[in-house]
Amino acid sequence: MRRVPKKYPKNTSVRKRLDALVQQQEIPQQNHAKLIHAFAQGRYADLHAQLLQLIESFPQAYSLWLLLGNTLLKLKGYPKAELAFGQARKLDPSASARLTGLGDAQRWQGHDEAALGLYDEALEQNPRDLTALKNCGNLLADFGRFAAAIGYFERARVLAPAGRPVPGHICGQCPHDGQ
Fold it and tell me: What keyword terms does UniProt attach to this protein (predicted)?
């Protein structure tokens, strides 16, 4: 029987990636539960240490590199996050999630135009990438381009599974709010 925390992280894509690693036998099941638990508890430093150990044993596991990049973003280790996403890119050049992660790293370092380009590239590879749609919308709202931002948020809303909100931060900023 599988032991996992009663509550999964709100970011179900992390859980799904970890589930896939176990199913593909890329990581042992006991590591799966530890990773999910660390993520759910917001213990990103612990998660970082666990991921580094796992990557030593499973260097070809794309999802581990992707999760390492996302963990480093949470820890504000942006240059190291870029390296992790770069390794993920080498392992799976067609995956849009690594481009979204690279875009996040660029954005948090103040390189907004580069981030927007990476989000757009992610959307070229996967037009249904909800994270890239939301991030494009947020970035365009920051630029004051509210009509374009609303377009991205609307696309994300239409594509999102029922009951899953797609938050944007333009509420109250946009002249079109409430329309």
Answer: Repeat, TPR repeat
| Rounded Cα–Cα distance for residues 143 and 112 (Å) | 9
pLDDT in tens, 90-133: 988 888 888 999 999 999 999 999 999 999 999 999 999 988 99
**For 115-179, CATH number?**
1.25.40.10
Q: Which fold has domain 1-93?
A: 1.25.40
Structure tokens at 145: 């381009």
Considering the chain, tell me which residue range(s) the CATH 1.25.40.10 domain(s) occupy: 115-179
Please indicate whether residue 146 or residue 58 has the higher confidence score (pLDDT).
Answer: 146
